[in-house]
Amino acid sequence: MEKTYLMVKPDGVQRHLIGKLVQRFEEKGFQLIGAKMFRLTREQAEYHYEEHKDKPFFGELVAFITSGPVFGMVWQGDNIVALSRAMMGKTNPLDAAPGTIRGDYALNTGNNIIHGSDSPQSADREISNFFRPEELMTGDYPVGLPLNT
Ligand code: DAT
Ligand code: MG
Protein backbone atom coordinates (compact mmCIF):
# COMPACT_ATOMS: atom_id res chain seq x y z
CA MET A 1 0.00 0.00 0.00
CA GLU A 2 1.38 3.44 -0.92
CA LYS A 3 2.39 5.63 2.00
CA THR A 4 3.06 9.32 2.43
CA TYR A 5 4.38 11.67 5.08
CA LEU A 6 2.07 14.60 5.81
CA MET A 7 2.97 17.28 8.32
CA VAL A 8 0.98 20.18 9.69
CA LYS A 9 3.63 22.90 9.78
CA PRO A 10 4.12 25.26 12.75
CA ASP A 11 1.73 27.84 11.25
CA GLY A 12 -1.02 25.22 10.88
CA VAL A 13 -0.55 24.05 14.46
CA GLN A 14 -0.59 27.63 15.73
CA ARG A 15 -3.82 28.29 13.84
CA HIS A 16 -5.51 25.22 15.36
CA LEU A 17 -5.98 23.52 11.99
CA ILE A 18 -4.76 20.00 12.95
CA GLY A 19 -8.27 18.60 13.37
CA LYS A 20 -9.66 20.07 10.15
CA LEU A 21 -6.69 18.78 8.14
CA VAL A 22 -6.85 15.29 9.64
CA GLN A 23 -10.58 15.25 8.88
CA ARG A 24 -10.01 15.99 5.19
CA PHE A 25 -7.72 13.00 4.76
CA GLU A 26 -9.92 10.70 6.83
CA GLU A 27 -12.98 11.67 4.81
CA LYS A 28 -11.12 11.10 1.55
CA GLY A 29 -10.72 7.49 2.69
CA PHE A 30 -7.04 7.32 3.55
CA GLN A 31 -5.82 5.33 6.54
CA LEU A 32 -3.77 6.97 9.29
CA ILE A 33 -1.01 4.62 10.46
CA GLY A 34 1.06 6.92 12.70
CA ALA A 35 1.00 10.43 14.14
CA LYS A 36 2.75 12.59 16.70
CA MET A 37 3.35 16.15 17.75
CA PHE A 38 7.00 17.11 18.01
CA ARG A 39 9.51 19.80 17.21
CA LEU A 40 12.02 19.13 14.42
CA THR A 41 15.68 19.24 15.36
CA ARG A 42 17.87 21.34 13.10
CA GLU A 43 19.42 18.11 11.78
CA GLN A 44 16.01 16.63 10.93
CA ALA A 45 14.96 19.87 9.22
CA GLU A 46 18.13 20.13 7.12
CA TYR A 47 17.78 16.49 6.07
CA HIS A 48 14.06 16.87 5.32
CA TYR A 49 14.67 19.88 3.06
CA GLU A 50 18.05 18.75 1.71
CA GLU A 51 16.95 19.15 -1.92
CA HIS A 52 16.60 22.90 -1.24
CA LYS A 53 19.93 23.41 0.54
CA ASP A 54 21.36 25.67 -2.19
CA LYS A 55 18.24 27.81 -2.54
CA PRO A 56 18.24 31.38 -1.14
CA PHE A 57 15.29 30.58 1.14
CA PHE A 58 16.86 27.49 2.78
CA GLY A 59 17.89 29.26 6.00
CA GLU A 60 14.46 30.80 6.40
CA LEU A 61 12.80 27.47 5.63
CA VAL A 62 14.78 25.60 8.31
CA ALA A 63 14.15 28.42 10.81
CA PHE A 64 10.41 28.28 10.10
CA ILE A 65 9.98 24.53 10.27
CA THR A 66 11.91 24.33 13.57
CA SER A 67 10.13 27.38 15.05
CA GLY A 68 7.46 25.42 16.88
CA PRO A 69 5.73 22.07 17.12
CA VAL A 70 4.50 20.25 14.04
CA PHE A 71 1.99 17.42 13.70
CA GLY A 72 3.63 14.65 11.69
CA MET A 73 1.56 11.84 10.20
CA VAL A 74 1.99 8.75 8.10
CA TRP A 75 -0.97 7.86 5.92
CA GLN A 76 -1.59 5.11 3.41
CA GLY A 77 -3.94 4.52 0.49
CA ASP A 78 -4.05 3.97 -3.26
CA ASN A 79 -2.12 6.71 -5.09
CA ILE A 80 -1.91 8.66 -1.85
CA VAL A 81 1.18 10.66 -2.85
CA ALA A 82 -0.44 12.24 -5.91
CA LEU A 83 -3.90 12.49 -4.37
CA SER A 84 -2.72 14.15 -1.15
CA ARG A 85 -0.58 16.61 -3.14
CA ALA A 86 -3.70 17.50 -5.14
CA MET A 87 -5.63 18.02 -1.91
CA MET A 88 -2.84 20.28 -0.56
CA GLY A 89 -2.75 22.51 -3.64
CA LYS A 90 0.20 24.29 -5.24
CA THR A 91 3.20 25.41 -3.17
CA ASN A 92 2.53 29.10 -3.76
CA PRO A 93 -0.92 29.91 -2.36
CA LEU A 94 -1.40 32.38 -5.24
CA ASP A 95 -1.54 29.33 -7.53
CA ALA A 96 -3.40 27.02 -5.13
CA ALA A 97 -7.01 26.51 -6.17
CA PRO A 98 -9.84 27.28 -3.74
CA GLY A 99 -10.95 24.03 -2.17
CA THR A 100 -7.38 22.86 -1.68
CA ILE A 101 -5.78 23.17 1.75
CA ARG A 102 -3.32 25.87 0.72
CA GLY A 103 -5.99 27.52 -1.42
CA ASP A 104 -8.31 27.70 1.56
CA TYR A 105 -5.89 28.50 4.39
CA ALA A 106 -2.59 29.97 3.18
CA LEU A 107 -1.56 33.44 2.09
CA ASN A 108 2.14 33.05 1.30
CA THR A 109 4.65 30.48 0.13
CA GLY A 110 6.64 30.32 3.35
CA ASN A 111 3.69 29.80 5.64
CA ASN A 112 1.77 27.26 3.63
CA ILE A 113 0.29 25.10 6.41
CA ILE A 114 1.16 21.59 5.30
CA HIS A 115 3.91 19.39 3.92
CA GLY A 116 3.34 16.28 1.80
CA SER A 117 5.88 13.95 0.18
CA ASP A 118 6.28 14.42 -3.57
CA SER A 119 7.01 10.76 -4.50
CA PRO A 120 6.87 7.33 -2.85
CA GLN A 121 10.69 7.43 -2.61
CA SER A 122 10.59 10.80 -0.81
CA ALA A 123 7.89 9.40 1.46
CA ASP A 124 10.13 6.49 2.60
CA ARG A 125 13.03 8.87 3.20
CA GLU A 126 10.89 11.37 5.12
CA ILE A 127 9.04 8.77 7.18
CA SER A 128 12.33 7.26 8.36
CA ASN A 129 13.60 10.73 9.36
CA PHE A 130 10.72 11.15 11.81
CA PHE A 131 9.29 7.76 12.77
CA ARG A 132 10.71 4.50 14.07
CA PRO A 133 9.14 1.40 12.48
CA GLU A 134 7.47 0.41 15.77
CA GLU A 135 5.61 3.74 15.83
CA LEU A 136 3.64 2.79 12.69
CA MET A 137 0.70 0.45 12.32
CA THR A 138 1.44 -2.23 9.75
CA GLY A 139 -0.88 -3.74 7.17
CA ASP A 140 -4.58 -3.15 7.29
CA TYR A 141 -5.38 -2.75 10.94
CA PRO A 142 -8.90 -3.68 11.96
CA VAL A 143 -11.36 -0.84 12.31
CA GLY A 144 -14.83 -0.93 13.81
CA LEU A 145 -14.36 -4.06 15.86
CA PRO A 146 -16.70 -4.22 18.84
CA LEU A 147 -15.07 -3.23 22.12
CA ASN A 148 -14.58 -5.81 24.91
CA THR A 149 -14.01 -8.75 22.63
P1 DAT B 1 6.20 21.76 -1.46
O1 DAT B 1 6.10 22.11 0.00
O2 DAT B 1 4.92 22.11 -2.19
O3 DAT B 1 6.67 20.37 -1.72
P2 DAT B 1 8.85 22.64 -2.28
O4 DAT B 1 9.33 21.27 -1.94
O5 DAT B 1 9.20 23.19 -3.61
O6 DAT B 1 7.26 22.75 -2.12
O7 DAT B 1 9.40 23.67 -1.19
C1 DAT B 1 9.39 23.32 0.16
C2 DAT B 1 8.96 24.50 0.96
O8 DAT B 1 9.91 25.55 0.81
C3 DAT B 1 7.63 25.10 0.52
O9 DAT B 1 6.52 24.45 1.10
C4 DAT B 1 7.77 26.51 0.99
C5 DAT B 1 9.24 26.81 0.82
N1 DAT B 1 9.51 27.48 -0.46
C6 DAT B 1 9.47 26.92 -1.69
N2 DAT B 1 9.77 27.83 -2.64
C7 DAT B 1 9.98 28.99 -1.99
C8 DAT B 1 10.32 30.31 -2.40
N3 DAT B 1 10.52 30.61 -3.68
N4 DAT B 1 10.45 31.26 -1.45
C9 DAT B 1 10.27 30.97 -0.14
N5 DAT B 1 9.96 29.74 0.33
C10 DAT B 1 9.81 28.76 -0.59
MG1 MG C 1 8.48 19.44 -1.52
From TrEMBL:
Its cofactor is Mg(2+). Its EC number is 2.7.4.6. ATP binds at residues 9, 57, 85, 91, 102, 112. GO terms for molecular function: nucleoside diphosphate kinase activity. Residues 1-138 form the Nucleoside diphosphate kinase-like domain. Its main location: cytoplasm. It holds the Pfam family NDK. It catalyses: a 2'-deoxyribonucleoside 5'-diphosphate + ATP = a 2'-deoxyribonucleoside 5'-triphosphate + ADP; a ribonucleoside 5'-diphosphate + ATP = a ribonucleoside 5'-triphosphate + ADP. InterPro entries: NDK-like_dom, Nucleoside_diP_kinase, Nucleoside_diP_kinase_AS. It comes from the Bacteria. Belongs to the NDK family. Major role in the synthesis of nucleoside triphosphates other than ATP. The ATP gamma phosphate is transferred to the NDP beta phosphate via a ping-pong mechanism, using a phosphorylated active-site intermediate. This is Nucleoside diphosphate kinase.
